[in-house]
Amino acid sequence: MSSILGVRALLFDVFGSVVDWRTSIARDLSQWGHDKGIGIDWEAFARAWRRQYQPKMQEVRSGKRGFTLLDDLHREALETLLPEFGLSHLSEAEKSHINQVWHRLDAWPDSIAGLWRLKSKFIIAPLSNGNVALLSNMAKHAGLPWDLNLSTQWFNAYKPQPQTYLGCARVLGLKPEQVMMCASHNDDLNAARQCGLKTAFWPRPTEYGIEQTIDFEAEQAWDIVAKDIRDLAQQLLDR
User: Fold this and answer.
1) Which of 123, 141, 230, 136 is nearest to 180 (CA)?
2) Please, where in the chain does CATH 3.40.50.1000 lie?
3) What digits encode the pLDDT tens for the residues 144-199?
4) How distant is the alpha carbon of residue 81 from its chain centre?
5) pLDDT tens for each residue of 67-111
6) Is residue 126 classed as helix, strand or coil in its secondary structure?
7) N or C: which end of the chain has fewer CB atoms below 10 A?
8) Torsion over CA of 209, 211, 215 and 217, rounded to 10 degrees?
């Protein structure tokens, strides 16, 4: 219990932890594709698109290229996917609509209620690699009740670079130990812990569908291990 005393702000990983990107993209684009007469495996498309997420950001983290917004990295990855799925013929407007699907992701069933409960006591914000416009539109679409958007864009970096975690604590006027990183990804929490932040984990065992191989359970003794965000709220507010 004593390990989390003094925590004043909760930072949330978003993709996979708070919103369900895989089924959201598949559902959204399946309906769009149906209206357009495009019948591909949109879930496979979503998973293939997501596989390019880390490699694209690593180009920035490594210094190979300057900081580039996630929206633009998503679009670059999309351009490579379209031929693989027989979609080279799409118009610019259609490509833009597909790329914006990341702005239209839906929350996991427990996310909204859990966040509202936590908001009653803590500052809550995303610490996401999503850019500000993406996170703002997603919050409006999904009903995510953030107090503010703490995108890594503000720091021209991508998690797990230390300046993202430490930069958020600085922006909030808090010491690292007064901030808790909350995520379904052990590697994110490990990086946050190395920066002095508190940590909270809950599993999302269906995030990647059939391709999921990690993050089924806590891999370290995080400060809190919860079942989901509702349970996280229960544990934090009952202390």
Assistant:
1) 123
2) 2-20+105-237
3) 999 999 999 999 999 999 999 999 999 999 999 999 999 999 999 999 999 999 99
4) 21
5) 999 999 999 999 999 999 999 999 999 999 999 999 999 999 999
6) strand
7) N
8) 70
What's the angle, vertex CA 68, arms to CA 191 and CA 30, rounded to 5? Answer: 90
Tell me how far apart the alpha carbons of residues 25 and 106 are, in angstroms, rounded to a whole number: 9
Domain with CATH 1.10.150.240 in the chain: 21-104
Which tokens in the block code for residue 106? 């839906």
Token pair in block for residue 203: 């599993």
Amino acid identity for residue 156 in this structure: N
pLDDT of residue 239: 72
Question: Rounded to an integer, what is the distance from CA 194 to the centroid of its chain?
Answer: 20
- The CATH topology of domain 2-20+105-237 is Rossmann fold (3.40.50)
pLDDT at position 1 over 60: no
Q: Per CATH, the architecture of 21-104 is what?
A: Orthogonal Bundle (1.10)
So what's the pLDDT on residue 2?
37
